[in-house]
């Protein structure tokens, strides 16, 4: 391992060991809650569509909305300031606080002020700044950074917090339970709020037409920070503006559900500052609150800090739609294992953090954790504004590839030509050009397999491209799937007698490694009356795409389409065994192909079990396929991340059940392998940790005797590593024997 | 508002562990008697046909606020689907009374209970356009930051709702 790989691996191991358990419990709970809560909405998809439409429109019209908001805030008697960057925002806030002669500022949780590091600025001006969100306060006492967007102290256990309080305060007796800890914090923070001269908050949304801020909280600290002192400073990214208060509605219904699985958080505040409520003068305890002069002051600081430039960037622009709900982090297998301290930048963490950090801090900060996105796509359906988060991560990866200098190995360069920059990291180049590796592997098998398994070869692979020596390598077949198909004389169902005609797409793995599943696909389709062809079609481009090699992936897309066009013209269906390739056809190719071409391929391509499902439902005879033996103990089935995101898991389950199998499905978001990710030495332990829940589930008493089947190549590799019993692709289970 | 909507509201409150009583304007005094713990503070109700009984002081000082176990305020709007009460901020200390005491008792008129969030926002948009502020409060204050769900992080630990028909 190179030293940077070593360091990265050590860092990840550290977070797995110290914070992994607490983060896993919290995020998996939130994520499960999200599924339950959104299922209670009749109009979930419509709400997401309207939320997205509102953000899109607002970001398109942002300059105009800023002007409108300024008028509204000023008409209400407040002040609006647009800060160009962090220094500008901090200076403004400090001047307001100094102008009030404030000694204490109480703050409600705000990611934007974390981004600016306002606390440092105020503290260096001699102002006492107190975080009033309980999680933030714990971090302030511990001098740590947040590890999650909505639950900043998710990585801390109850015992850890109890120790922290014990060490910080002069306690009469130790605090143990969550109730004791919370009530202690309430008491302490209540005193600080009573003393405060200025209250600072963020804002989840701001309405341009009325100057109303929407704040989403559960604890009530934002309410107290706003109503007790007479000065309120709100700091928010400029992207938080929406046209009107009515536009808040879909977000009120989505934000809690998406983040923590609550139908709604305890308090949704709609403040139109300065608010009418009287201030609370605890140092004049016997004067009725209504007797004081209510002379409230309000400042809204809108922060640009790179956002207006993101708006001009076609690829990063969608990041500005983000409502910071944290669903992408909670639904992410890697985040669940390792948490935001490994998965974050200076401020933001989780799936969308790459986009935010690339826009706000720069590519170097985003690069530190960009690799942790495996492109599994489980966050895509979770995101309430439908941001294609994996795509943003891919774009940033591509920019990192292009921006970085590095050593150039002309041997590899000469062997594997592509459009990517010469400085590209060798590991990325190796995995990104796996099609060439696979072709060479098959051509020289079994020698290549034997060589690859020797110690010197493994050491060389570890050193040059970072393949972890603990991983089994794919074993290349000498006779590829296409050669097998040609040797047997093509399809055994003549076109004239066929119910349909289909191309079985010879993806890289099916063609060179998992040849058996290709044979099983052909035999299954033929049994159901399909004339099959297996033409020479290039690899989909998934491998280079996942390394951020976008132009190479794009070239593959055009080549694949050219090779398939005549078959689409001949009205053949395209049947895909590997779900990550199908996901390319149905998702990423939209960015690469002409719209009509994309649409044709999208409409005519199917996942293999989805296709079998369709054939059976169109009247094909299920008894021609393999059914369970007497006393069969059933199937434990793991779908594939992208297959699930496309909504295709249920087809496999339905086919298996129709054939008489008893099926349990995996509950985890991701098996953790996600293609090349799990092979890389720096991520090996993380990958295995992500796979732990599926191992536990499939080894539990009610699943331990079941046949394990899975849909994707990398899932099968990972299950082989995790379990001590054999695994196979679903199509091999149902193919006629 | 239809009685179906009020029943749906009651069911949502039940899920949130929020106590609820239905009463008439005449019987409000008794209903509040059972819903409150002493000492009590309140904020005047902005309703035509009912007001708080005399035994609830409605012009509290900070010391009263600190001492009180129960705060009684109006909720001028409620949302059946979510079991939410909407508290409008007024120059009276409505917001403080609803926030500082361990128990908040919200008085809601049956006709102000709307089925869902979109109906609620029709009214909220009017209020905010007029420069007002409002809180959509759903159940008690809560936090999970200390390792388990705890009620009453900064705001009330318990919420009661009295629906006036
Ligand atoms: S990207 Fe989407 S899912 Fe992630 S925090 Fe933003 S809005 Fe939520």
What's a concise summary of this model?
The complex is a heterodimer of chains A (737) and B (165). In chain A, 50% of the residues lie in helices and 10% in strands. Chain A is an alpha/beta fold and 737 residues long.
Question: Could you walk me through the main structural features you see in this protein, from its secondary elements to its overall organization?
Answer:
- The complex is a heterodimer of chains A (737) and B (165).
- Chain A starts with a helix and ends with a helix.
- Chain A has 36 helices and 18 strands.
- Helix content of chain A is 50%, strand content 10%.
- Chain B is an alpha/beta fold.
- Chain B has helices at 3-15, 28-35, 62-67, 94-100, 117-129; strands at 19-23, 40-42, 70-75, 77-79, 84-88, 103-109, 113-114, 134-138, 142-143, 150-151, 158-164.
- Chains A and B meet through α8, α10, α11, α12 and β9 of A and α3, α4, α5, β8 and β9 of B.
- β9 of chain A pairs antiparallel with β8 (134-138) of chain B, so a sheet runs across the interface.
- Bound molecules: iron/sulfur cluster.
- Iron/sulfur cluster binds next to α14 of chain A.
Write the layout of secondary structure elements.
The complex is a heterodimer of chains A (737) and B (165).
Chain A: H1 3-18, H2 20-39, H3 44-60, H4 62-76, E1 79-83, H5 86-99, E2 104-107, H6 111-116, H7 118-124, E3 128-131, H8 134-142, H9 158-168, H10 178-195, E4 198-201, E5 205-207, E6 213-217, H11 221-227, E7 231-237, E8 241-242, H12 249-259, E9 267-271, E10 297-303, H13 307-312, H14 327-330, H15 333-338, H16 353-360, H17 363-370, H18 389-403, H19 410-415, H20 426-432, H21 434-444, H22 447-453, H23 455-464, H24 481-487, E11 500-505, H25 508-512, H26 515-527, E12 530-533, H27 542-546, H28 550-569, E13 573-576, H29 579-592, H30 595-604, E14 605-607, H31 608-617, E15 635-638, H32 641-645, H33 649-658, E16 663-665, H34 684-699, E17 707-710, H35 713-722, E18 727-729, H36 730-734
Chain B: H1 3-15, E1 19-23, H2 28-35, E2 40-42, H3 62-67, E3 70-75, E4 77-79, E5 84-88, H4 94-100, E6 103-109, E7 113-114, H5 117-129, E8 134-138, E9 142-143, E10 150-151, E11 158-164
Parallel strand pairs in B: 1-11, 2-3, 3-6, 4-7, 6-11
Antiparallel strand pairs in B: 4-5, 5-8, 9-10
Bound molecules: iron/sulfur cluster.
Iron/sulfur cluster is lined by residues 258, 322-328, 351-352, 382-385, 387, 389 of chain A.
